[in-house]
């Protein structure tokens, strides 16, 4: 068997060459790195890693990286992010050595129950099927100027897919909603409210018009009759023919109370009952 | 005549991306927007020119030399050494870019260090070594190969920007239609064959 | 001068709508309707701030009496269309689809005029400032549809010198014939009004642009214009010739810069109806309370032109035309290209309502929109040299910056692109949504 003769000189030279080249280039890179050093805060990268990364804007900043910058700068507590879990917020707080910060969890609710079947259209609308575009044409095809147009601008905007359009009405699935507020910002009618997550009961109407006028154009509108307010003035309030749940009250109404009040049009109802009714066509009684 | 082959040949006829199919990774990765494509093109031309020059120099004078009476033929170190040099060059560019244009640095992201392991750059260096060109010729070859890469990248980026506004069938949206477009672009470039 | 050999001016781009529909009403002389029992005068009939009411419910007013005073410079006075009692100041259905504030007057049947302004027969020797004041006092606004307060338009900023006054007698919208009838029936008012405006502006170049489908109006005005500095310029029949930027292009040969106003091209453009109203205001001291309105459509019994007072409800106007023979597909205030479809029959006429158009069901039918086929018709038709197809794609994909770069803000919403699009794309709505979005972001 013939073995290749390995010339030790060659091997040595090869090793020397590679080592030399490596050392030389390493030195050059080191020098250049020193000269062109960029002052950056690596903590921002760390916090960005720990955040959920949904870039929903719920914190009020332009994306997760922006929020990370504000947390590192001390402007916002980690808990301000509505999407991150308690564990995630705590991890960030631990990494930076700051307080987590208590933030009340919020949810979105579309305060309208006027479906295709219960609320009137003023005309046949043919055009771009977007709520903002429909508003350009005589204020939209619904007679009620305050109700949901149901063309899905909010559903398309929601980064968590929490909004469903049922029978031409937008409904928020609260188990998927984190209260980031993107939907409320994009709704041209202002029909979406961001409320404390604990509230399970809402008045699903947005029109301040007189009760009789509302009734003419929508069978599931709030009449402003005041039954709910009379029953429990601590938890409900009435302004301009429109009843509202007092979200800031220490206690919020529950399903039993809704039963007890007995809203004549079904505008006051629980989230679950509202969804079921809308699926069937509307909350009119 | 030789220079025609080095310049037009390297850029068009034997285009690195569309004829040799090297460097597809940054070609597909950075071509979503024209401004990042422009930045990447600049970086690649720079790296390819310098890398071709440096590696040609190294190949000619460092890998085959006589010292102290003995002949050292270290041609087998070619790939190792070339990669080392290319990696160092890209690292230098990264450092300089991070300081001078942070936006471009962020936009290029992972694709900048990917020029290191990019077969296009190593390919240019190896082709030079194989052809036994002079250092000057090798540098020119590398530079115009980079120009060819840039041309293909910019063309593709412009097409992709327009594709974003189009509405292909759902199954073709995104990468599939981009790949088909790249294929058609390669077919177009095959028309240069026989030019020189 | 050999009139027939004169060149007919025009501009680049634009379209030629198939059937002008003007035959329905262009030969019907303007009629004056009987007095109504109630007039609901819209409060805001001008661009700018709405005027402030100076009357309250229960007040008795005479015809031409001031109902609301202008708020600030860019605003206009509002006067009573007849004598009677102010019943209430409330909301009525507005022409834009949303309820609008209006002053409701119950007519007493007398139609007694309140004191009007003194006539200014010697307007040629009067200080322009006095004349502008008179125009402002009389509540004049652009009657072509823009409703921009006339006294503001006639006061261009001093850093923008003006040398040409152009009157818009083009009436390029199909179906509308109000301006045509005005030029046939009150040509002297138009010429005098033009001269008064020119005196105010201090210009000696006055041109009235009239499309050549109104030959009788051209001849009638030319006869009266002889001996005056007013020139009648025949224009090729092309939509949107009546747009002020395109009148300037066709008549003065100048281009208003992107994002600019006519004053940037040294011109002021006014509608012929506004000029006639100006003549009434200066020579007779009469505030603006009525105008010629074309009430037309195949589905009406007697389409024609009426001199309607502001505050006349839409329903009454339709009654004048004898009602309908079939259910209309759409009721439009204005023309079919740029008018606004109405949601209610209770909407009242305003100073800028040039026409009421009823489209039949077939005419109002909108085809389903499909994908752009890159035919390029919209590019040929756009009078502002934009690319509606590119803009529409950018807007659909939410690429607002791309749309802004391609000058979507210069779109005049004329509807030429949507009219010619074979794929029936909602181009104008897309442009309007982009403009709305870009204004929000500014």
Question: Could you describe the 3D structure shown?
Answer:
- The complex is a heterotrimer of chains A (285), B (196) and C (442).
- Chain A is an alpha+beta fold and 285 residues long.
- Chain A has eleven helices and eight strands.
- Chain A has a two-stranded antiparallel ribbon with strand order 1-4. A two-stranded antiparallel ribbon of chain A has the order 2-3.
- In chain A, a hairpin with a 2-residue loop joins strand 6 and strand 7.
- In chain B, helix 4 (78-100) packs across helix 6, helix 6 packs antiparallel against helix 7 (135-165) and helix 7 (135-165) packs across helix 8.
- Chain B has eight helices and two strands.
- Chain B is mostly helical and 196 residues long.
- In chain C, strands 13-12-16-14-15 form a five-stranded mixed sheet, sandwiched between helices.
- Chains in contact: A-B, A-C, B-C.
- At the A-B interface, helix 1 of A face strand 2 and helix 4 of B.
Number of domains of chain A: 2
CATH superfamily of the largest domain in chain C: NADH-ubiquinone oxidoreductase 51kDa subunit
Radius of gyration of chain C: 21 Å
Instruction: Give the strand content of chain C.
Output: 15-25%
* Classification by helices and strands of chain A: alpha+beta
Quaternary class:
heterotrimer
Q: What is the 3D form of chain A?
A: elongated
Return the average pLDDT of chain A rounded to an integer: 87
Spatial order of strands in the largest sheet of chain C: 13-12-16-14-15
Order of strands in the sheet with most strands of chain A: 1-4
Unreliable runs of chain C, pLDDT <50, ≥5 residues?
1-5
Query: Remind me, CATH topology of the largest domain in chain C?
Result: Rossmann fold
Of all chain pairs, the largest interface belongs to:
A-B, 16 and 21 residues
Rg from alpha-carbon coordinates of chain A: 30 Å
| Count of discrete domains of chain C | 3
| Portion of residues within helices of chain A | 25-40%
- Major sheet details of chain C: 5 strands, mixed
